[in-house]
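Recap quiz, item 2
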Amino acid sequence: MKRSVQILLSSLCLVSASAGAFDLGELKGKVDAAKASIPSVNPKLTEAVKELKGPSESEEIAIGRQIAGNLLGAAPLVKDDKLQKYVNRVGRWVATQSERPDLPWHFGVIQSEDMNAFAAPGGYIFITLGLYRTFQSEADLAGVLGHEVGHVIRQHHLKILQQSKLVDAGSKALSKSVGGNDKVQQLIGSGAEIVARGLDKDAEFEADRIGVVLATRAGYDAYGLPSVLQQIGHAAKDDDRVALLFKTHPSPENRLNKLDASMGDRFDRVKGLTLEKRLLKVKK
Amino acid sequence: MNKHSGWWVALMLCAALQSGMALAGEAGTMSKADEMKAEPFRDAKSVKTLAVGEKLDILSKQGGWFKVKVGKTTGWVHMLSVRKGDAKKGTDSTSGLLALSSGRAGTGKVVATTGVRGLNEEELKAATFNEAELQRAEANASSKTDAAAFAKKGKLVARSFDYLPAK
């Protein structure tokens, strides 16, 4: 029985992966049919099946909010409202150039000397103070935020959850009742571990390409993100501050090579602003 | 070494430390063979061809271009043909990985002597939900209108640009 449930769950997962292209009624029909095909279903399975259809936008935001709250449990915001407001304005302007301008986007700088940035579903994006310190212009900031916006709009983390934890959570739901935030938490593993887990390399390269384009669309110089990658690549690999970043991302060298190949000469005649002077300074 | 030169070394060191992110004099290495141009655009006159691995000094940056100095020649090289540093730096990752799996890892205990706090996997896994901080983060949100006004103030103009192909 357990095995057949798992097979059912994974096949539903496949159905939901292409759900966007289906007529919703048709999809619902399929799910109902699948549910009906199992005799004496545990009521909790119904919930699991619903989750496997892929979360709605509000569920996506709820998942992201839980991850963001956990991340802030590990590293709080830098106590500088001017800086936080500034990063939100730049971030929102960059995100507005994407296909999901109306998500409730949130950006923040967290108190850590690491060099890293994190994205959670639904538009929660955080960069570390250590990374912020490497920026030389607003265009650098815009490029990095653009990369993270890329993860959100292509739902990279959500896809990971759907591939792994969700099935797991679904089978847990069969035996155990969980509620409220606990349920979302069960979905995302423990704490903010999802952001410590690497995405696959192609997701990172894709986010790099998106970051460069969104910054360009926003009117910035396209080379902000590559500049930051240059800076990070310059940091020694045995520097603690890049340990997690290097563990979860392809090397900056590799990312720059990929960007070089994709960007080619497309940006040769595209001028943009760097806004060095507007980059908000932070205390040492 | 006399007293005076000692002072000079100290002064130079101070200046070097303070200059921080300034590009002037930063070392770079060619990551692929490319032309050095007289001006920062691709169809500008070629000054010379630089080989992969060639060392240079980065003087400044303009868009996708670095103004560089190789020997006595100055010109422009495309930024993505250059990697900062002299390429040999930090090839040994042992201490980084060791550092990651030691210290506070596992116990969740913060060792007071650790100078620099690093966000590691264990710490993120052990993190607990902080509603107050999250609400602070949410209170700083910028609306589309607010962000657009801020962009306008910086003379940023939105434009269309296609996504890039994967290569």
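The longest strand of chain B covers residues 55-62.
The radius of gyration of chain B is 24 Å.
End of item.
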